[in-house]
Design brief:
Chain lengths: ~350, ~170, ~100
């Protein structure tokens, strides 16, 4: 009897490679959010002239795992008179959209894993020709996790926190989208892989052709809107402990709270990953094509932006809510519109 | 495979819409409608219209439904009150007639389509790329339909101003 | 491979569900949601027929339908809020003073 190979079941090497890649990306995101917990506490400590966690593991690196174990053992409270189904679903929506937004981000060139694979594997989960819009769409869905958390907790603080947080998110989504549109104008395509490939090459031999040099205002708008979208300081009024207890996740405990936490960090990672792909040249760098080390450059750039995130949180004071909304509507949105118009005019004028 | 995907997505859409129409809790209606919109976006992707699919999620599920959600939360409607006893037969007869007409509409559409032969979609790749390319949509939108586009922007402005004026508290 | 007829039947059923919702429900917000269902049924018809005929016009009309739906939802919900302030109820049976 002839041998049955895996190929007879329709499972090819490419399929297995792709599944492994998806698994790797998923785990990398979870590990990055754990790493962010550690980095945040360490950076916060050094900014405040102290040392931060240094007991658990070398330099406190196992601290996030200790935190997770503590959270898992906490009691899972469920307040009465809350809409139980929506209360349970809200953190799931937040986390699912956070992971889904990363699915179209390319983080490396084609690689054959040193000849292990018969055909080159693209380092991304998927590539659609409307990738930028997919991220935008998934980010819009992320608002629902927060809104439902606030509503179904059936408590005044949660409801107010949820409403404020979601109003802030939808206000800054506009500037976010307009900054994305300016980059799409420059690149001529909505696929993130195309956008990164359009940034290859150098001007005068040493300045890389990244879009941050062509669109500095766009980069500023994108980062500001991204920080506001992820509800991070200085735009984190809805989470301010002093004002609203803890905002929309007041009534959550143990794993549900951990899920919200993780969703916030993964949203930060997604915004940073998009910023590197759109403005900082993604995985491009010296020798990235020849030696397949693009993903190291990508990780380095993403970590740099994440460091900026944490740095901003512990340096800048918090915006008050009305100042926040005024800034978003009266300053950032007109700037984003002007940026788009100027970009369109320059693209037409310079060909 | 595609047939299976179509039946799953269509089933989710119809079940979610039935849930919207029959649920007594307004919040559940809104969430079920969002599920229905998601399934419809999947159907648009099956029809080689990825741009319309993402636009559906961004505009419908991401903006209009948030508006509905805010209103439901602000009006604090946890559960719809039991319907008052309807005044006598006239109103109820109109309601039943309306539902009967909708059911008749569905049956008539299904019957009419079964009389016509099956029309399959063309699978020519040139045709597919003509339909699904965003550049084509942008080109047609801003050249052939540019007047409708400008009028729509005025419409949105008018509705925005109108909504603010109507919902404002009297001082 | 689903044919055009499949999509048109789905659209017809969705439209019927929406119409039944408008007639049956006694809650203003649910009535508005049923109207949205009807608009979506129309959208899927447009996209399916556009794909069948190989033109992009179906999707363009969808674009305009979505925009008009957004405008209508905004004004409709503003009206619901204003009405709620007067009568503290969301049932359309409370606003029958113009009936003869």
């Amino acid at each position: 009897m002839s041998e049955l190979t895996l190929a007879d079941f329709g499972i090819s090497q490419a399929l297995i490679a792709r599944l492994v890649l998806i698994f790797v990306v998923f785990q990398a995101l979870v590990l990055t959010s754990a790493f962010m917990v550690w980095m945040e506490r360490k950076v916060c400590a050094y900014i405040q002239d102290r040392e931060g966690p240094n007991r658990v593991g070398p330099a406190g690196l196992l601290q996030p795992f200790a935190d997770v174990i503590k959270l898992v053992f906490k009691e899972d409270l469920r307040p009465k008179a809350a809409d139980a189904l929506l209360f349970a679903i809200a953190p799931i929506i937040s986390t699912a959209t956070a992971f889904a937004a990363f699915s179209v981000v390319p983080f490396g060139n084609e690689t054959t894993l040193f000849g292990l694979l018969s055909e080159p594997l693209r380092l991304e989960v998927t590539d659609v020709n409307v990738a930028v819009l997919v991220v935008f769409a998934v980010a819009s869905m992320g608002v629902y996790g927060i809104v439902l958390a606030g509503w179904s907790s059936n408590s005044k603080y949660s409801l107010l926190g949820g409403l404020r947080s979601s109003a802030q998110m939808i206000s800054y989504e506009l500037s976010y989208g307009l900054a994305l549109a300016s980059v799409i104008l420059l690149a001529g395509s909505m696929s993130l892989r195309e956008v990164v490939m359009n940034q290859s090459g150098y001007w005068w031999g040493f300045i890389p052709k990244w879009y941050v040099f062509l669109q500095p205002l766009g980069f500023f708008i994108y980062m500001t809107a991204g920080v506001a979208e992820t509800n991070r300081a200085p735009f984190d009024f809805p989470e301010a402990e002093q004002e609203l207890v803890a905002g929309y996740h007041t009534e959550y405990s143990s794993m549900s709270f951990a899920l919200f936490f993780m969703a916030e960090y993964i949203n930060m990672v997604t915004v940073s990953a998009l910023a590197t792909s759109l403005y900082l040249g993604g995985w491009l760098g010296p020798f990235s094509e020849r030696f397949g080390v693009g993903w190291i450059y990508f990780m380095a750039k993403v970590l740099l932006i994440l460091f900026f995130y944490v740095w901003m949180r512990w340096t800048l004071p918090r915006y008050r809510y009305d100042q926040l909304m005024e800034f978003g509507w009266k300053w950032l949105l007109p700037m984003a519109v002007l940026n788009l118009i100027a970009t369109a005019a320059l693209v037409i004028w310079l060909g | 495979m595609e047939q299976f995907a179509f039946y799953v997505l269509a089933g989710v859409t119809i079940l979610a819409s039935l849930g919207v129409v029959s649920s007594r809790v307004p919040m559940h209606s809104v969430m079920l409608l969002i599920v229905s919109f998601g399934a419809l976006a999947g159907l648009y992707v099956m029809l080689d219209a990825p741009f319309t699919a993402v636009t559906q999620i961004i505009v419908y599920a991401g903006a209009i439904m948030v508006l509905f959600l805010f209103v439901v939360m602000l009006l604090n409607q946890h559960r719809e009150d039991e319907p008052e006893v309807m005044p006598a037969s006239l109103l109820r007869r109109n309601l039943r007639a309306g539902v009967l007409l909708s059911v008749l509409l569905a049956i008539e559409v299904a019957w009419g389509l079964s009389q016509v032969g099956l029309r399959s979609f063309g699978t020519d790749p040139g045709e597919i790329s003509a339909v699904s390319s965003v550049a084509q949509i942008g080109l047609a939108l801003f050249t052939t339909h540019s007047f409708a586009f400008e009028v729509t922007s005025v419409l949105i402005l008018v509705s925005m101003v109108g909504a603010v004026v109507i919902a404002r508290r009297e001082h | 491979m689903p044919t055009l007829n499949h999509f048109l039947i789905l659209s017809g059923m969705l439209f019927a569900i929406g119409t039944a919702g408008v007639f049956l429900r006694r809650n203003l917000i649910t009535i508005l949601l049923s109207i949205e269902i009807m608009l979506n049924a129309v959208n899927i018809t447009f996209v399916a027929v556009g794909r069948y005929r190989g033109t992009v016009d179906g999707q363009i009309i969808t674009f305009f339908v979505m925009t008009v739906a957004a405008a209508e939802a905004a004004v409709g919900l503003a009206l619901v809020i204003a009405l709620f302030r007067h009568r503290e109820t969301l049932s359309p049976d409370a606003f029958t003073s113009l009936k003869w």
